């Protein structure tokens, strides 16, 4: 497959997924499963609320998006940047060129966020 066609297909699939996520509220659709960790333990993982967060972001409701998962809102611009760099500049090594210290820091942020959002004092970090 030609690179241009492959890129177009990737963009079309992402666009279709974004449209569906804009149109369908994840919490109201039974086809989208609930988080397995939340179902089994009652605890929110660092990703809980991410789909709802992106849904509200696509609808233009930043406050509701932030209430669902602030970490998603903070990390989304970086993920979009990496995706655009991969597609436009054909730099398939960008993600692997990130210094390991940044990846360890990101892992620590995920773990800390996952712990804090389950503590009563930080209930504001849980999806609501």
From TrEMBL:
It comes from the Bacteria. It holds the Pfam family DUF2752. Keywords: Membrane, Transmembrane, Transmembrane helix. The chain crosses the membrane at residues 66-89, 101-119. This is DUF2752 domain-containing protein. It comes from Pontiella desulfatans.
């Amino acid at each position: 497959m030609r690179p241009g066609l492959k890129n177009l297909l990737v963009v079309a699939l992402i666009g279709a997924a974004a449209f569906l996520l804009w149109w369908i509220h994840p919490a109201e659709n039974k086809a989208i499963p609930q988080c397995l960790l939340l179902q089994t333990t009652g605890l929110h993982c660092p990703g809980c609320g991410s789909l709802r967060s992106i849904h509200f972001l696509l609808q233009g409701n930043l406050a509701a998006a932030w209430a669902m998962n602030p970490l998603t809102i903070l990390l989304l611009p970086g993920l979009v940047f990496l995706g655009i760099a991969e597609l436009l500049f054909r730099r398939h090594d960008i993600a692997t060129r990130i210094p390991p210290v940044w990846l360890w820091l990101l892992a620590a942020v995920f773990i800390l966020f996952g712990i804090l959002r389950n503590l009563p004092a930080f209930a504001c970090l849980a999806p609501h």
